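Here is a protein:
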Amino acid sequence: MKRMVTAIIAVIMTMAAMPMAYGNDGAGEEEYLQPKDIERIMDQLLEYHVDEKKVTAEILKRSLKSYIEQFDPLYIYFLESEISFYQNPDKKFLKKMLAAYKNNEITFYEELHDLVCKAIKRSRAWREEIEKERDDIYQDAKEYNSVMEYDGYTNNSRELKDRVRGRILNFVKYQAQVLKREPIEDEVKKILSLFERRQRDFEDRLLAEDPKERQHVVVVSTLKALAKSLDAHTAFFSPEEAYEMRVRLEKGVQGIGVALQEGLEGITIVRLMEGGPAYRSKKIELNDNIVEIDGISIVEMSFRNILKLIRGQQNTEIKLGLIREESNGNDRFFEVRLKRERIMIDEDRVDISYEAFGDGIIGILKLYAFYENSSGTISSEKDIRDALRELESKGELKGLVLDLRENRGGFLMQAVKVAGLFITNGVVVVSKYADEETTYLRDIDGYTYYDGPMAILTSRASASAAEIVAQTLQDYGAAIVVGDETTYGKGSIQHQTVTDKSGKSAFFKVTVGRYYTASGKSTQIEGVKADIIVPGILSEEELGERFLDYPLSRDSVLPVFIDPLSDVDGEAKEWLWSYYMPTLEEKDSTWREMLPKLRINSAHRLEENENYQLFKKVIEGDKIVRGNDDYGIADLQVAEAVDIVKDMVQLYSEKKLSDSEK
C-alpha cells in the first residue's frame, strides 16, 4: 500500500545545491566548490570507508546512475533515450571518465547536467501549457485515477507529458481535499501557483546561470552521486541538509520557535514551540500568516529562502509582519519583534502512556530516535530513564512495551546506553572496521532500571540504533520482539561530520564499519526477526536495506555473552575484571520458553479481532468496503503488544507459583 505523506516543515528545509558553508549550524563564510574539491573530499570518504578505498570505473558507472536518479527519481523529466547511455556506459567511456576524474575534470558530469537543464525547460513549457487549462483542470483532477509511481522511464514524449500533467492533477486533487470542498476559480489559480512555486524552487537551483554558481551546482551533484555510489548509506550533504540532520540528532535549533507551512494563503504558522520566543510573546497565534520579514515582503519568495531569513543567529532580532483574520472576516496586519535563541525540541522524543492492569500498570514508551545534544542535557537514555520513573509513580510497573516502530536510529552510543537500562552489565555492540580492528561497546554501570516482562515493538522502518536495542535485548532474553516480520536491516556504522563544531570539514556521513550484537549476529539486510509477528501498516512495503542500491554484505562474529576484554589492557582491564565481569548479564530463557503459548494466544486474539482482520486486508491491498469506520482509529499493533505483555505477566506468575510448589 502506497501512502502520501504530508510533512509540516519547521525551521529547516533540504536544499540540493547551495554554496558550501562551514561552521556552526551551517552558517559562516560561503564558498563555491570547484572540480579540484571533488578528489579532496572523496579522499576523505575513502580513507574512512569500510570497503571502498579508491574511485574505480565501477563507482563512476554507479555515480552516473545516481546523478540521474537524484534529479529525476519519479521518472517525470527524462525520456529514456536521453539517458540510456549514461545508465549503461561502455568500458571505453568509463576508461576516459576515470582518466578525467584523476585530472579533476568533470566534463562528463557537466554534459549530464546539460541534459538536466534541458529536461527542466521542457517540463516548464509543458506545465505552462497545461496550467492554462485552468477552467477544466479541477474537473479533470476529480476524475483522475492517481498514479504515484512509475516503473521506469518512457521513450514516448506524449506519455512523459501525461506524467507531468498527472503530477499537477494529483496536486490539485490533494489541495481540494485539504480545503474539504470544491475550490473556486481563484483558489484553483492559487493551487496551480503553489505547485509551480514549489517546482521552480527545486529547479531554479539547478538552472544557475552564473558560471561559478553553475560549476558549484555540478560539483555538489557530482559529490552526492559519487558518495552514494560507495554504499547505501554514505552521503554528501549541503549545509542545509547537514543542518536538518544536526537538528534531528541534537534535538535543538536556533530560531523563534514556530513551525511553518506553505499553503494557498502563503506562509502559515501551524505550531508554536512551547517556551520559545514566539510562544512567550503571546502576540502570535496559530494560523497567522507571515507576509514580511524585517520589512521585506516574502510573498514572492521561495520557502527555503524564507526559512533562511527566520533561522538566523542566536540573540539576533527579527521583525515579523503578520496578517490575522479577525472574527468579522477582515484581515489585520501587525508586526512582532522577537529575539532568536537556542530552542530545545521536545517533540518526537519520548511519548509516555500506560494501561491499568490488575493492581498495577502496563507502561508504553514510544522512542522516536536516538539523540543527544552537545551538552548532554538531552538524550534518549535520560528521557527513557525519566519515563520509567514517571511510570513507576503511576503504579506498580508490571510490564512494558518499548515502541521503536519508525525509529530510524541516531547516535550509536545512545543505543548502547538505552539497551543498558535493561541489562546489568555486558557487551551491547561489537564494531568491526576496515582494518579488522574490533571494539566492544559495553554497558558497565551494573544497574538495571527495569527487568520485568517487556516487548519491543518494531516495524520494517525500525533501523540502525533501534535494531541494536531490539536485537540486544532479544539476545539476552530481556525482552521479546513483536511487530512486522523483520526490521529494516541496517547493520552498518557511519561516521558523520554534521555535528562537527570545528568548522573545518565538509558535511558527509560515511560507512566505516559493521556492527554485531552480543549473539554475534548482524542485523545487516535481514534485520531483527520478530518473535511474534503482528503485521503493521508497513508490513507489505518494499522497505529495507535489501531494496537499496549497493548494500554492504552480511556476516557474523563469535558470540560475546562472556566478554573477552580483548580490546582493553592495563588498569582498565583490571577494573573491568573486578567490577564488571562478576555482574555480567546472563542469557535468560524465561520469555523464550513462553513463546509457543504467547504466539498461540496472540494468533487467536488477532483472528477474533474484526478490526484487525479488516486492517490486515487493507494493508495487503484488498479493495474492500470498510464496514467499520473506526478500524483505523486505535493503534492495533500497540494494543496487541500490550496484550502480549499481559500474557507474559500472567504466565510468569504461574511459573513462579509452580516453581514454589516444587
Q: What stands out?
A: Residues 636-661 form the longest helix (26 residues).
